């Protein structure tokens, strides 16, 4: 059915939960996985009078983001390795994570994107935006949205 699945990560708990589910899904299908972390492009502070001396250069920023992205992608790599799933990863730079996720899926020949969603709706989604919603809007391949089940607290159970 699906042979190569793209799993984006931002390092959040939601993303880690979706990664685990995505790897298990890929294992069931005997599919390969491509992990992607999208960092924002470097922005030089051009509208300030005095640039702080500790402001990173573009290469320093990109190196720091690559290290951070590789740290997050290591979670996917570990899960893939434990489950015997072929894995490759990439750190990309783009101010639109959704567009870069779709582009990366195309470049790597993925036939499915597996990603998490906070499940916000209405005003919350409007105000915060949603990378998942934007991917769904811009993508020509299937997108499987993993919704994390929120555990009910003990106090909520007792009430």
UniProtKB/TrEMBL annotation:
<dbReference type="InterPro" id="IPR006015">
    <property type="entry name" value="Universal_stress_UspA"/>
</dbReference>
<dbReference type="InterPro" id="IPR006016">
    <property type="entry name" value="UspA"/>
</dbReference>
<dbReference type="Pfam" id="PF00582">
    <property type="entry name" value="Usp"/>
</dbReference>
<dbReference type="InterPro" id="IPR014729">
    <property type="entry name" value="Rossmann-like_a/b/a_fold"/>
</dbReference>
<protein>
    <submittedName>
        <fullName>Universal stress protein</fullName>
    </submittedName>
</protein>
<comment type="similarity">
    <text>Belongs to the universal stress protein A family.</text>
</comment>
<feature type="domain" description="UspA">
    <location>
        <begin position="1"/>
        <end position="145"/>
    </location>
</feature>
């Amino acid at each position: 059915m699906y042979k190569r699945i793209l799993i984006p990560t931002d390092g959040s708990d939601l993303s880690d939960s979706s990664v685990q589910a995505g790897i298990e899904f890929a294992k069931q299908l005997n599919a390969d996985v491509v992990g992607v972390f999208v960092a924002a492009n470097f922005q030089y502070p051009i509208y300030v009078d005095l640039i702080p001396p500790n402001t990173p250069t573009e290469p320093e920023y990109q190196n720091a983001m690559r290290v951070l992205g590789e740290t997050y992608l290591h979670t996917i790599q570990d899960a893939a390795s434990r489950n015997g799933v072929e894995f490759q990863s990439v750190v990309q730079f783009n101010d639109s994570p959704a567009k870069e996720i779709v582009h990366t899926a195309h470049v790597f020949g993925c036939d499915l994107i597996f990603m998490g969603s906070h499940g916000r709706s209405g005003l919350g989604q409007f105000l915060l935006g949603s990378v998942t919603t934007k991917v769904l809007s811009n993508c020509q391949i299937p997108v499987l949205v993993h919704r994390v089940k929120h555990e009910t607290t003990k106090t909520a159970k007792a009430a």
